[in-house]
Each structure stands twice: as structure tokens, then as C-alpha cells.
Amino acid sequence: MTTSLPHAVDPRALTEVLDGRWGHVRRVARADLHDPDLLPAYGESVQEARERVTRMARKIAESGRVVLGFPKEYGGEGDAGGSVTAIEMLAFTDLSLMVKAGVQWGLFGGAVQALGTERHHDAYLRDIMSFDLPGCFAMTETGHGSDVQQLRTTCTYDPETQTFDLHTPHEAARKDYIGNAAQDGRMAVVFAQLVTQGRRHGVHAWLVPIRDEQGDPMPGVTIGDDGPKAGLLGVDNGRLTFDHVTVPRDMLLDRYGSVAPDGTYTSSIENETRRFFTMLGTLVRGRVSVGGSAAAATKLSLDIAVRYGETRRQFSAPGADREVLLNDYLVHQRKLLPALAATYAYSFAQEELVGTMHDVQGAEDLDEGAQRELESRAAGLKAAQTWHATRTIQMAREACGGAGYLQENRLPHLKADTDVFTTFEGDNTVLLQLVAKGLLTGYRDAFGSLDGWGKVGFIADMVRETVLERTAARGLIARLVDAVPGRDDEVPLLDRGWQLKMLEDREKHVLEGAIRRLRRGAETPGVQPFDVFNDVQDHVLRTAQTHVDRIVLEAFVAGIERTTDAGARALLERVCDLYALTTIEADRAWFLEHGRLTATRSKALTATVNVLLKDLRPHLVTLVDAFAIPEDWKGAAILREEAGRQEAMYTDDMATHDTGLRRGTATSLEVPPGQ
Amino acid sequence: MTTSLPHAVDPRALTEVLDGRWGHVRRVARADLHDPDLLPAYGESVQEARERVTRMARKIAESGRVVLGFPKEYGGEGDAGGSVTAIEMLAFTDLSLMVKAGVQWGLFGGAVQALGTERHHDAYLRDIMSFDLPGCFAMTETGHGSDVQQLRTTCTYDPETQTFDLHTPHEAARKDYIGNAAQDGRMAVVFAQLVTQGRRHGVHAWLVPIRDEQGDPMPGVTIGDDGPKAGLLGVDNGRLTFDHVTVPRDMLLDRYGSVAPDGTYTSSIENETRRFFTMLGTLVRGRVSVGGSAAAATKLSLDIAVRYGETRRQFSAPGADREVLLNDYLVHQRKLLPALAATYAYSFAQEELVGTMHDVQGAEDLDEGAQRELESRAAGLKAAQTWHATRTIQMAREACGGAGYLQENRLPHLKADTDVFTTFEGDNTVLLQLVAKGLLTGYRDAFGSLDGWGKVGFIADMVRETVLERTAARGLIARLVDAVPGRDDEVPLLDRGWQLKMLEDREKHVLEGAIRRLRRGAETPGVQPFDVFNDVQDHVLRTAQTHVDRIVLEAFVAGIERTTDAGARALLERVCDLYALTTIEADRAWFLEHGRLTATRSKALTATVNVLLKDLRPHLVTLVDAFAIPEDWKGAAILREEAGRQEAMYTDDMATHDTGLRRGTATSLEVPPGQ
């Protein structure tokens, strides 16, 4: 059914493609990041983990690798893509360190850079970069995580004293989950409702000292500790409460809005909502980092599970003198390989996202449309990659059996540390809704409509061209799709154009259906606007999911197009087939319901996936070799020990063969009780 | 589309049905288990957790609640169902304690009871029951978890000294993951290959002292610690290695096989494999306990997520003066309610399983067929319930946002502690294969065929009547199914008979297909037996999954039949609809592929599920109230604090209303970066 693959593919050729545009940053990280403090540590107490990670943050600052994104005039390199890539590489070593770095240089430093002006940069950027000024990004409140516009902390200007009064009115307004707050932070970028001359102007940010030189809380600042968490032991998440704290006027980060000494508010962006989203938009980098770091953890978990499955044996096949390798079982392949294929697909999509972010943020003039699309893409890929991480690491843990439950095999940390990735930097469900909204309204009028999307009249009037914008390798993809003949069900399942067309058709159909249902709801007399929206919420989220699936497949196709090594290219084509077909297979009910697949073809799809698994089985280890993860970053005892055990057992079995030892067969399965 | 539900249902009426036959054990546990050592503790070190759990195990032993299953003559009550229920109730308070109790009284004590004879009972049972003799169940080895018949530890009889020589030949034969080993265990039931007179007789068990009175390892015994794990901090899992340890002859647990002083081996069960499975079969109780305990953790997680969603608000609806409750969002309902419905379904299936176990094990004569069916049922429900727990607790964690990541809200512990449940007491994938094998070969000839199932000839000859044996409420279910008219697609989706028939048809069809494919493979010349099996492994596992889905639905129907309270019954009917339809919906691709659903009807199914969500929304809290979980068992700060925060915020908002605070709408979603 498929053309044959080369016998062996050089993983280095795959690594080169996966590494992409910031390959130099990755290579330097692989060569340099081997400090013992960086490598996986198990059984630490919270305090030990915090101390180690803080120590490591200082060392990393000295290395200069995490400040690539800062302006050249302050010692950075103005390299946004490089900064995100550097943070992602830290995720391979220690996820607490990655988060700590993300807080310090991505969120805190990034906010000062993006929302502040020259006086803030001159005063603080160098100390932030060197970690001499550890800081917090104090946005989320106990009562508001997803709906940031509704933060309850207030910051009220008093022209008499020319200062702001920063205040937490009640516990729901307490800043919560704030990294660097419980132990290290000396300052915080605090988000609050700006009030001046008796009027509110929406959420703004201030630079506020929270600890003095001795590390004690500043007057009026109460600092709490979020206490033990599921994971990320090395990150000191805490809570900040402000009791009428005085903040000097010039500590307002005033790039997008400022207050004159007399209290007059001015902004270059008239519309409050638009101003808010412009401010948030500058901070997209954090979301991109989380997606990339989730992918790093996913790769580690697959590396461990695949190598273990290539060594570990259980149950004998009739007539064989050794037991069967886990990786030789179809059901084990069904677990590992589709997850691996999706990981490759997301890698290409993430690489493209980082490049887009770098270019959009580095452009002379802000292209609002491009910025909106970037935010949508970042949101969708963050959600997809973090959910993929949660699922895949769980699967890898189970695929390693009881060994996967021991910290010495790394998987428990990967699981616990990444678990919150589906929540922070935006709850995934809310992020998908954001993506959906972009699709439903189109990017071009997003600013005007974000505010009123719930209003019935707007939905009824809404017009969206559902001609999908292709993302990457536009020409190639158009050619592939256009070459698919009309009668879909005669096209081979491995035809790339057909696969692309299936995902494209689905996105378009789901989107049009959602628009139709929203409009119908809006036109029904007596229905509350909330109910119009809520009755189709599942359908709306589906538009985002189908959109992400398509852009990811397109990115994969574009990635293959860039691959020059013939063997690597052939293997990637097969992996891409597996990603495309398992994506379609997972949702084949929809394709059946909508006449895109016949029953016969749907069954053939499943059979074809199984053929692909057989084809790819010999390349399983090559596919994880390509991640090029240094041995000491893995920290999994089973990778060091299992092969020796299997050898010892085999040797002993051969020696005692005469004693009449008999084996069961791979098909005579029984399992023990016992823990 | 549906008949209306009563306005309010008394949760106590639901509790009574859910509590079932061992309701008295549950009620006593709810009344009595409030020792501070039992309640959730956060931020403990491994040593603190171990000490607390050991302390608690002693207290629990004194209470007598965990020894219900032991014989009356030793102070127990011979109540197998009660013992499993008592362990399940411990799972609500502390999962480490539940596992520790399961090891001590279920596995270790259970093995002495079931595999030993009177002299072992007289010598040890009382001390085991009182925890004066903490012990281990040393079956699993580092090299063999799933394939117990292939354990590599040997125990060789020497007639000269009339002792056994217990030996670990290499590291793969080391006993691993053994609860009670690292700290508390004084003896262990050790499973090893019995060798006497130069012949092997398969796996047997010995009672072996591993520590002396001072707690030091016995000569020749090396004890290791499995070190930090993902969870279950209070369980001291360890490793045991035996270097030619001398074991007296009478320490062989010899109920099913004994060695005379001269080394002659005798057994009441001739066939070695049959003997092995008979020995393992007596230990089914552990697997039943794990399923029940997974369900307890699932209920706790749903209780927390549902109550939080009933208090927590985020985003405003147009025109409303408060933000929208999480539980009012369709997508939130789509997460919580199907999980809740499945939890109800499994509760009924588990209740039935415990009853069957109690009756089968308590019968005068062993009914081998009933015992086999019990083991299959226990395996299938263990797999289904533990995977459901992993998924549901993860979902609940995400549904609580960042709060779900803090230990103070309990969910991290529930997640980490139950994670290994999908592995221990049998890897779930292997367990499903065991279930499938039972279905494929039929129970009646299982003993004869277990050994040779991989052999080609056998498969080719295999005949199985695919008339499914109904499990519960046979008459009622037969009537419901028979009443479904021939043209399925005109029957209402809420017709219970149609739902039952769909799951029954699917099981039968999948099973027949698997048999056909196996036979075809076996008849193909040149195909290796392993490949015959492996090529259809995914299909084989599907038979088990479809089987479990059916018996669970049947148990739900039987449970409703026992419900006398009209309101509770009406509500359960609706919950059962949701379980049945979401189960069918999840696999609707299969039903479409096989002509059991038209495209139109498949779409209607999804719409009907959404209608059921609306119907059940007002009863969400009632459905978790029915779990009757005492407040102090929950240990979730958000359940104590969030309502007050929401009130304070609302009060403050109303007071500051004049200042022009404006809110976004539930449909204008944006989310913050920030961690």
C-alpha cells in the first residue's frame, strides 16, 4: 500500500529540519547546559528546589542566553525568536527553571520592555537581565484569571501628592499564583484598574517594589505563599495584597497610556478595549514559550518511553527464545507512534509560529492584522501543544509501567510540572474560544467587534468570508489540494492533497455551520444573547480545533518541503501521513456524518493507519534520536539500567535452559495482583 | 424531547441506592473516620507521610474495620464484600492509607489466608490483622510485572536440610515496587519458581521473614527503597533481593501444592497452569479494591469541581449584574456531566461486582466458571474505572483552573496518588487482553486453552457462541431489548431498549469480527503465530472495551430497577440516558461504519446529549451531594473560601457601581498571559 522507506535514515538530517531557523540557539544549549544544578533532581523538598532553581537562574543570567530578546542598547540582541527558543531549551533540563526564566525575562522583563518607556528601561532593564532585580508579573487575581479586563485591584491617582494609591479591595482581588513572589521578587509589574479624575481608564501596569533590600515586604504589601503545588517545586508562586500602597506617578508603565501631574489621562489609543488588547498583545511571547516548552517535555517523555520499549520485553512469542519487545506490539505502536507523529507536526507549526512572531514583532510598523493573527495562532498552538503534552506524558508514563511512576525515571516530574500548562498563560478552553472568535469575525474587524461579539445584532449582521487563509507553503498546498479530483473517495488515502482537503473542508463546514447557528439563534425572538452563544459553545470551540488541525498539517507539509536529505524527507512524508490519517481517523464520525467518507473508506483508513505503524516501526528510535536530547538531560534510570538487566536475564536463562524452564507465550496473558 | 424531571430530588434517596448492599459499612465509615491523621495533609515530606500512614494503619487495625474479610475463628467476620467496601471508604480519606491497608490486609493477609493452610493461619493471621506483623506481597519483579508465570526468583528444595533455598539470580529477578518493604515489613509472601528433585513446578509462595525484631534485614536479604514516586508518599515501596536465603519447609504456603520431607511434590491440581491461575484467582479481591478506590477518588474530584463551578464566576453575560457561573457554560457541563454519569454507571457495576465476589468466594463449592467470570469482570472494571479516574481527575483539575494545581485544593494528590492505579494490580492494557481472551474462548474451556491460545491450530478450531450472557436484571433487559422494533432508526434515542441493543450488537459484532480475523490469519500459510495475534491486537482489545461498556450499562439499568424513590428514579433514568448516549456518541464512527446509525441520527444523538445536559444542569449539585462525602474528607480550600470571595466582590461591585465600572461579556473573551 505504501512505497518502501529507506532501510535507515540519518537522524541528524531530521534534527537539522526540526531545529529550524534558531538551530544555532539549540545547538549551543545542547553543548553548554550541563551544570549539575540543571540536571533532573529527585526527592527535593520545596525549599531545596527553590534554592537550586534560584541559583541556576543567576547562572543562566550570567551566561547571557536568556536575554537575547532584549534591546541591543541594553546588552541584548533584539532577537525575539532566539529568546523564545532559549527558554524552550531550558524546558528540557528543568521545567521549574524554564518557568522561572519565563517569569523573570519573559513576563516581568518583557512587560517592562513592552509597556514601559525609556526611563523604565534605563533604570531597570540591565538589573532585570542580570537577575539582580528579580521580579513578578502580577496580573492574575484570585477572582479573575481568564477575564483580565475585570481585575478588581485599583490604582487611583491623587494630583495633590502626584502619586497613585494601589489597593486590593477584597480577597478576590488578591494577586495569585504569581511566580517569583513567595521568595525572590523585589519588584512586581502590577496590573490594576487605573482611576484618575474620578474616571476609570481600564487595566494598566505599574512597577511596584514589593520587598526591601533585606527581603522584607514593603509597607502595605502582604506576601503569601501558594504553598505546595502539584509540581514546579522550584517556582516560588505567591500572593500579593496591597493595602493603599503609594506608587510614584512615574512608575506607571506608560507606553500606551499616561497620567499628567494634574491627573489628565492621555493615550495614543483612544478605544479602551483596543488599548487593552494592544497592551496584552505585546506579551504574546509568553504563550509561545509555553507551547514550545510543552513540546520539549513531550519529546522527553517520548524519548524515554520509546527507548524503554525498545529494550523491555514481556511475554514470549511461540518458538522464540526471547520475550517480545514492547515496541513490537501493535497496541504499543498505536500508543507511541501517533503521539510521535503529532509531536513532529506541532514542532513544525511551532517553528513557523516563532518565526512569525519574530518577524511581526521586529517589523518597523505594527501590522495589526498580522499581530492579531499571530495572537490567534499562539493561542491555538499553546492549547493544542499543552493538551498534547498532558495526554502524551500520561501515555508515556503508563507505557513504562510501574517504572514510569518512580521519580528516578523522570516521567512523574514531566507530568506534574507541565500539568498547569493547560491553564497558565490562558486556560486552554478560553484560548480556543479566542481563536474561534477570530475565525468567526475575521481578523480585519476584530478590534471593532471584540467588545460586542455577544450582542445579538452583531451576530445577525456578521459576514465572514470562509475562504480559509493558508498559512505556509501556500503555493504548494494550493497545488496539492487543487490536484484532488472531484470524486474524493477514489483518491488514495495517502494522497497529501486529499488529506489537506479533508481538513480544509471540515474547517470551512464547521465554521459556516457555527455562523449559521449563531445567526439563527440571534434571530429567534426572546432568546437571551448569552443563550444564543452558549447553545452553540461546543460548536464554536470545534471551529478552533479544526482550524488548528489544518494549520498544523500545513506547517508539516511546509517543513517537509524544506527538507533536502532524501531519506529524512521520505521518512517525514510517512510520519506526516500518520499525523494526517490519525487526525482524520479520530474525527471520522464527523466525516461520515457529512458525507466526506464512506463507511468502506472509513474502515480502510483504520487499516491504513495500521500499515503505517508497521512501516514506521523500524524507525521508531530514529524518530526520537532526531530530538537530539543529550543523555544527561534525560535523567531516567531505566534508560541506563534496563538493557543490562535484560542481558543478564537472557544469559542466565540460556545457562539454566536445561533445568526445564518453560515460558508462556505472548498470547497467554495473565497479570499479577500486587503493588 | 425528554419528560420533565422533578424540581428537586432528595440526594439521600440517591445515596441509599448508590450505597447498596454494604451501605452499613459505608455509613459507619462516614460516621467514624475523622481522626486528624486521616484527613488530607499537604506539603508532607516522604518520611512524614510514611510515619503518619503507618500510625494510621495501626489505629485502623484497632478499629477492626479492615479485618472484616478474615475468618470468624480468627476474629474477622468472613465478610469479603464488607472488607473491600471498607478499603474503598479509606480511599476517600487518604489514598496512601488505602494502599497500605490493601497491601497489609488484602494482599499479604489475603495470600496467607488463601494460599496458606491452618498452621499458617494459626501462627500469623491474628498478628497480621492487628498490624503487629506488617508484611509484604512480594510478587512483581523488576523484570516481570505482567507475566507472573515468568518470575525468575527460584526457591529450591534440599531434602538433606529439609529447607528451601530462596534466590535472586540477577537484578531483573529483584522484587520491586513492593509496598511495606522499604520501612515497615517484617515478613513477606514471596512468589518464586518452586524447584524440587531437579524439576520445576511453577510459581508458588513462601512466608519469609525479611526483618528481625530490631528492624534490620535478615541475613541474605537486601532491602532497597524505590525512592520518591509520583504520589502515594505514605507507602513505603521497596525492593527485595534474596541471596540464597534458607526458608524452612513449612513456610511454603501449601494449600495448592506441597513438598514432602523427601522432596516429593504433590498438588490437588495436576495441571501447572491451572494451578497457577487457581492460586492467582483467590487474590481477585485486590483488583476489586483498586477499581472501587479509583471510583472514590473520582467522586471526590467531581465533588470538588462541581461545587467550585457552582460558586466560581467568570465573564459577564450581557445585561446581567453578576458574572456567569462556570457550571452554566455548555462546555463546562460537557466536561462535568458525562464524567458524572459514567461515575454513576461504574458505581452500579462495581456494587454488582463486589456482590458477585462475595457470593462466589463465600460459596460452599468453588464454581470454576463463576470464578473465571468474576476475574474477567474484576479485570475489566478495574481497567475501566482506573482510566476513568485518570481522565476525570485530570479534567476536574483543569476545570478548577490554577486553583486545581495547588495542593490545598486536594486535586493534585488525587491525581498523583491514583496515577499508578492504571498499572498496579495488572496493567490495564494487559487486563483488557485478559478480558478479551475470556470472551474469545468462552469461560467454560478457559482452563484448557489459556496455555495454548497462541497456537494456530487452536484458533482455527475455536468456536464460541456469541450469544452474550447478560449480567444483571436479565429478565428486564431482555424485555427492553426485545421490545425494540426492527427498524432501529425510528426508535427514540432515549429508548432504553435501543441503547442496550446498540451496545449489545456492537459487542457481538466486534467479537465475531475478531474471531473471523484470527481464524483467517491462522489459516494463512507462513504467518507466524505471534503475527496472527499481533495484527489484530487492537481489534481484540476492542472486544473487551465494548464488553465492559455493555455490562456497565446493564448494571446501571439494574440499579435503577432497585430504586424505589420516584424522584431519585427519574433522575437516575436521565443520568443513565446520558451515560448510554455519550458512550454511543464517543464511538459513533463505529455505529456509522456498520450501518447502526444514519448520519442524520448520529447528528441527532449529539443534539440530544446537549438537551440532556440542560435537563441535568439543575441537578448537578444533587448528583454530587448523593456521594455523601463528609466535609472534612474533602480538604479543598476553594470549597471553604470561594463563596465568601464571590460575595465580597459582589458587595464591593455594587457599592462602587457609581464609579463607572464596566464589565466585559461572557462572549468577549480574552485571557492573560502570566503565571
UniProtKB/TrEMBL annotation, chains A, B:
Q: Which family does it belong to?
A: Belongs to the acyl-CoA oxidase family.
According to its UniProt record, where is this protein located?
Answer: Peroxisome
The protein, known as: acyl-CoA oxidase
EC no. given is 1.3.3.6
Main site of residence? Answer: other
Pfam families in the cross-refs: ACOX, ACOX_C_alpha1, Acyl-CoA_dh_M, Acyl-CoA_dh_N
Write the record's keywords in alphabetical order, separated by commas: FAD, Fatty acid metabolism, Flavoprotein, Lipid metabolism, Oxidoreductase, Peroxisome
Q: InterPro entries given for it?
A: ACOX_C_alpha1, Acyl-CoA_Oxase/DH_mid-dom, Acyl-CoA_Oxase/DH_mid-dom_sf, Acyl-CoA_oxidase, Acyl-CoA_oxidase_C, AcylCo_DH-like_C, AcylCoA_DH/ox_N, AcylCoA_DH/ox_N_sf
Please report the stretch or stretches of sequence annotated as the Acyl-CoA oxidase/dehydrogenase middle domain. Answer: 136-245
Q: List the Gene Ontology MF annotations in alphabetical order.
A: acyl-CoA oxidase activity; FAD binding; fatty acid binding
Task: Tell me which residues make up the Acyl-CoA oxidase C-terminal domain.
Answer: 501-631
